[in-house]
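Q: Got a minute? One more chain.
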Amino acid sequence: MGPSGPDQASPTFATPPRPKAEPPRGNVALKTDDKGRLKLPPPFLKFMKALGDETVFITTIDSKCVRVYPMTKWREAEEWLQSPERDSDSAERIWRVANHYGAESEIDDQNRVLIPALLRQELGLVKADVYLCPTRTGRFDVLAEPVYMAQIEESHAHNRNDVELAVKQRMP
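A: Always. Here it is, folded:
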């Protein structure tokens, strides 16, 4: 008991829950500017806001695709790479490449992010036609147009079998 009666816990104020972060849908054709900046479309910005992120980590792990991670999602990727279930040598190599090419970028007042210079040079992304593609994991991929079109052609080549499988599995 306290001096004036039973101890009472001080009131706590719950932080209101964030709205569910709905990832954007649909790929968007864009162009990087002469400084390697990429303007994020409104659905992508809305997703970032719902996550509470104004900073992204931009990198690659395969030298084909730029990965734009909202910081919340990059922290998840870091945890995944550090997990004991991962092959430590493989995870270390991925970590090394990601940090070699990667950098944090703030979303500027014009809703742009800056692709790191070394990464722009490696993937040829200065004044380039690109596609911004949301992924199922919450990151955004940036693909140069020729890489994107090759992926679409590959998808078309397998489409019939993929659709048949989806129908069998009762895709809604």
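A: DSSP finds five helices and eight strands in the chain.
Q: Perfect, thanks.
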